[in-house]
Design brief:
The protein is mainly α. Among the domains are: 29 residues; 62 residues. 56% of the residues lie in helices and 0% in strands. Helix 3 runs antiparallel to helix 6. The longest helix is centred in the N-terminal third of the chain and has 27 residues.
Length: 144
């Protein structure tokens, strides 16, 4: 029985010491600012985000739409003179869209060289191709 009383007394003393330590800890952390408390807060997990701090979801990515011409579209029909002209400028190394070349031939036919040169080089022809372009148009179309 004596041992039981000793064990109970030791347990009671341990409990009192634990409660006294907790009270002392609470007393030290009375809401006042302490460097040790701030340092301990910075090493713990980050604070939870408030609703205002939550990140917005990323903006949706734009959708790219590609429009292709219908597959059954027939190429434009050119007369014999136009087809011959397109073949001649291609053989001379002049690369131009067919529609633009026909339009440029019609637009420059009968113009003086300087005006025709300005129109054709603005359209993308090299300067050294201007006279060849004009000659090919005149040969295939019999003039203007």
């Amino acid at each position: 029985m004596r041992q039981t009383i000793i064990v109970a007394a030791v347990a009671l003393i341990a409990a009192v010491v634990a409660v006294a330590g907790a009270i002392t800890f609470i007393k030290l952390d009375s809401g006042e600012s302490h460097d040790a408390g701030r340092a301990a807060n910075h090493t713990s997990a980050p604070p939870a985000q408030t609703p205002a701090q939550k990140q917005a979801p990323p903006a949706p990515r734009p959708t790219v739409t590609i429009t292709r011409p219908p597959q059954n579209a027939a190429p434009p029909a050119y007369g014999d003179a136009d087809a011959n002209f397109l073949a001649m400028i291609a053989a001379d190394g002049i690369t131009a869209p067919d529609g633009w070349a026909i339009e440029a031939g019609n637009a420059t036919c009968g113009q003086d060289y300087a005006s025709a040169r300005g129109y054709l080089t603005d359209g993308g022809l090299y300067d050294y191709h201007v006279q060849t372009f004009l000659d090919d148009w005149t040969l295939t179309h019999g003039g203007c």
